[in-house]
Amino acid sequence: MKRYLLLLFIGLMILNPGFSWSQTKLSKKESKQKEALSRSSRYFIEGEKSLVLGDLDKAFFYLQKAEDIYPNQPAVSYKIAEVLVRSNQAEKALPYAEKAALADPQNKYYALMVAEIYTNLKQPLKAAEILERLTAETEENQQYNLDLASIYLNAGEFDKALVVLDRAEEYYGIRDQFTIQKQRIYLRKNNLQAAITEGEKLIEAFPGNPNYVLNLVEILYNNAKVDDALTLVLGEIKKYPNQPELQMAAYTLLKEKGQVARAQTFLFSAFANSDLDPEVKARTYSSTLNEFKSAERELLLDKMQEILLQVNGENAAVLAAIGQRFEKDQNLPLAIEFYKKSLQIDPKNASLLEQVILNSFGEGANLNQLETYTQLAVDEYPGVAEFWFYDGVVKSGLKKDSTALVSLKKSLELNAGKNTQLEQVAFSSLGNSLYNLGEKDSAFVYFDKALALNPNDEQVLNNYAYFLSLEKTNLEKAKSMAEKVVKKYPDNSTYLDTLAWVLFQMGNYSEAFTYMNRAIQAEKEPSGTLLEHYGDILYHLGKTKEAIDWWKKAEGSAEASKLLSQKIKEGKYHE
Hints:
By secondary structure, this protein is mostly helical. The chain has helices at residues 2-15, 28-52, 56-69, 74-86, 90-103, 108-120, 124-137, 145-154, 158-172, 176-188, 192-205, 210-222, 226-239, 244-256, 260-272, 278-289, 295-312, 316-328, 332-345, 350-358, 367-380, 385-397, 401-415, 420-436, 440-453, 458-471, 475-488, 493-505, 509-521, 528-540, 544-554, 564-570. Helix 8 runs antiparallel to helix 9 (158-172), helix 16 runs parallel beside helix 18 and helix 24 (420-436) runs antiparallel to helix 25 (440-453). The radius of gyration is 40 Å and the shape is flat. The protein starts with a helix and ends in a 5-residue tail after the last helix.
């Protein structure tokens, strides 16, 4: 707080160079001047405070008031210009900035404000004039040469840009930012030799820096000077043998020249070096993987993979790249294993997460393990509808119905109708979870929504029909849906069981027996549900002894109903 008061006091002093501690009595005119100065200072201070707080309208109001009282104060004009620039009103700001710069030509900040405004107004050469003057005045302003060079480059004034960059280099010494800019200019002017000379100067100034060598190698390579690039790289490797980046360059150049065996020696040396960025290695491995498949390629990949696992076996990019190879070779389980290892190290990989999730669904899927990755996906990418959808489907399959509802509804919210396939399956899963939670009417609404998008979805048709049969409601609709599915899949025991149970609830026991018998015959080891249902149908056909025998076969099964023991004990059907 004390520091802030001190700054305000300094502001007052700036605005009033004649300020004095003298207690001499002032004339009437001097008193009015002092009062005006005091008001101007207060307005200036309030304007600065508002500017700091980001209230540009209020800042402009107070600073304008200060200028009305003392119109020739450059500090006030400068601040008004700053407010207008920040308000995207460069044209209005220009007169104020020029006024400040004219009143105090020694203040470089005023001049820089004018230059900035000219740049905003798309008048770069006028901005350049100001920067030329500043850099010519004193060595302290040489830092603005880079800005000046950029202006000339954007304006297409390449020769002027070169002069400025030479001037900056003379002051600061050889720097990569100067050299690279000059190289770009020379290349645009089709002066390849000058660009090469600049690169050689940089390498000489900073011996042992592979980046500067690679910069020149790229220029040579792009201009069909492969032999020169190779000579440069091999010469630098001879001087500095432990630079894997240069070994990678040698690999690329030698491969270009058809010297494959020699090229690979440099590749293996680079891969074995822990200093080489693992992501560079992973990209090189993936690039090789995308080449035409051959015995030679496979041998090369084997060797690269062996080194990668030894040196960078804990790197996410490397593990993902190796997983890609197994996926291409149709070895999906091993590919998924590598993808999972990669995600354990770096979970921020959307495409890999989707690969793992999608390829882990299916019959016999370990939903508990899969949930780990769907949960990871929504944590890392909370704005992706598909990840919430996968998480909801998995949770619904795990009977975690309350949390499934949250994920599925979030997926629908984010999807906003864009992906109808996602919507359709989400509606279906919502129906299943809502039914399990006892919200049966809502469940049926969602099943209807799912069928409106895909009337032939057998999973929805089957589940909807079965749930209606359990509720003993709308049985004709349930029968129609179940028959539709059985017609398409006549040997599917689950679908046959659903149709049989709908018919059972309708009291059509003979026809129910026909379909349930087919369901039993279709399974080598019928589930407890099938066995118990078969017994229930037989009981209603008057075959009590046979019914009890089938009920006993279902006894001990995880799928059996809670009433099974009572049915067996009493020899009577219970529901």
